[in-house]
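The following block was generated as part of the benchmark described in Methods. Ligand: fe (ii) ion.
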Amino acid sequence: MTPGSEKNTSYCFVSGLITFVIIFSIVWALWRVFMDANGVLKFYTPMYGFSLVAVWLASILVISKVFEFYPFSAANMTGAAGIGRGLILTVLSLFLMLFITYGIFWNFIGKFGVAYFSPNSIVISGGSGAEPFIARENASTAIIYFVTAFIWWALAWDLGFGLWPWQGASQGVRGWSRFCSISILTVLTYAVLFHPHICQLFYPPQDKAGVAPWWAEYAGTGSAFFSLGLALCSLKWVVLSDLMWDGYPWRFLDRRGEGNFIRGVATLIGSVALGIISMVILLRIMNIFWMEPFEGGQYTDAPYFRYLHAGEISGFIVLAAFILKTYFNNFPNLSTLPLTALFRTIVSFIGGGVFYMFYYSTLSVWLLGKVPGIAQPDDTPLVWTMLFLSVVIVHAQFFGAWPVRRPTSGERLLRTG
Amino acid sequence: MERRNFLKSLAAAGMAASVTGPTGLLSNEAHAAGKINIGEVKNVKVDVLTETSWFDNDIMKKNMMDYGGAMTSQYAIPWDPKNAGGYSALITVTALDGKERKILLDSGWSNDWMDYVFQEKSNVASMLKKGEIEFMVLSHWHLDHYWGIESTLKHKPDITMYAPATFYPEDMAMLKEKAHLKVKDKAGQDVLICKNDTPHTGKLIPCNQEGEDKTGIYKLMPGVALRMFDVPILLRVRGENVLYFNVKDKGIVTVTGCCHPGLLSLFSFARSNFDQYKPYGCYGGLHISLFEQWDPKFDDIIKGVKSFNIAKVGCNHCTGWIFAEKASAAGVPIVKGTDKFKTYSRYSSVNKGNNVFLTNGDSIIF
Ligand SMILES: [Fe+2]
Ligand SMILES: [Fe+2]
């Protein structure tokens, strides 16, 4: 067992670093133009911008992970063809973002089915607080939760089941089959973990449509930030085992070198279990800094904030892992995988810590236009993290991380990074 | 399943793991050594001068939506001047020896409205002129608490003022430099959003989280303390000053502008830091369902207020009418207001008439 994938391509640290700095600057520019509440378009309201970024990330994953670039071949292309393909896929992902948000959620599901997915339907329904601003924030919150469940399933499915059970099928059949499976699971997950929260966002609560949050007694909060935190903590292990551990330990369950049902189930259970364990550890660490939270507390005293923050920290680690993989050749690449995996994980944690410090620093107050301090109910680092992550994945997946990597002809794209 | 099972088991695991040394997990006991005695007052009365910061909630939200959102700077939005009211309260402290002392909390938003409130609906204007109000506390730099500052200063420009140290240049320009601040609306027209032609000449005490002599608080008079909570707040504001009163035989009362840091976080602070802490009551905006929406986390607050044993809750302004209604129905001791607000020239669109707010013209004694 030796670490794979990184050795086939030529890599140069300096160009990796320069590219990273350029990507960081692009993210900053995108933030100033689209998100920054005191910038140009001010989509960071916060939920509206959050939903757009989350849907964009989901769209990128639909193209790369679920459909394996269908109808394009999964193989990377070089030179002008590679750039052209990258541009087409990027435009496609943006189109999907707009189509899913405004077409599917606002004007289809929200218009003809579940009212709360559409700001307009909420306003039309009338009653307390149903005006355009809060309606858009609430609809956006529902969309964010839905696509978070989708993102989790898309990544976990790919890692666990791989091509199973459609390994013999064509790229298109595989893509559509996977998309339908993931969508069904997303709907179920959303219904149980997030829908109860959304039903409580209105007055009176929509308690015939959704039960009162069933986790409230246990979690010390009725907020679905509990579920969101847990989903993101688990997602962190999906990403780490995929990128940093070359798919192990789940790949021990491979049959004929491929994913299968057992590996899939083990991956799901394993990543959720690791997610719970890491969330507990993060909550313990937060207790050291902020003492115990209590029901009804706000800011850092709030149980819901602690759960969300565990998710936000996981987000920083996921971002660091993708950056390490894409721009720093998944450092280190030692002779044995366990040692390599351990060090890569440590580096990702450190990287996540650096992003954490950056986001809450005076520098980011100036760069991102924030108010200094932590736990603002209208601010979550997840938006910046997801935007950054989306740009990195677009670069890595759609543009083959050019010019950091110059793949030899015919080489298949790296699994994820 | 038992309430707070998850968090409790977590804490228990923490205790078990930390037998070898203190980790900070042990919240209240760990602070016992440094508790502060803030003294006592006989009672405290709050007159609601105005709690209607804006009259139409939908217009307020539309202004925010059209020019950004919750994170956008308040100085970048051309707020509808016709919608502006203000938040302000007059606090009368009766000391143990029976002497009365007065504090002005905040100065509202619209100068027209605040002049009406200070001159016609109360005698705050003459009290300011005669020096009967000892000092002013600015809870935070939000427009609805601060932009009406001229209405106070024109009667007493040298009033002593406690304000959060976390101000922006625009805040100071308003206070000291006769600023007239304008913002362009979507049509490209300049809209005057705030102005002050009477610069403050008195003592300004910028408050920060360290407090006096690193005690974390400012002792304003025996039994009265101020704490600045340095939290980020919507509309690019930062930090809120909170008033604590220790009422003899009753306990701790908090008086707030918006209570952005969270009511129970204020009581949690008092519990950890004040000698002989006993919870009693609160007055002010509680910043909960101010946009007339709901959120499961507001249900947490209703449960929390009960478990903190707060005996007397006077609320209004950004508390949200819905929260007050729901909390009252759930058994939270909400003190009801009267119909005096109807004698005012305007009132708020959120007012459903069932008096769960202490509103304009009401008062409460702790
Ligand atoms: Fe306010
Ligand atoms: Fe406020």
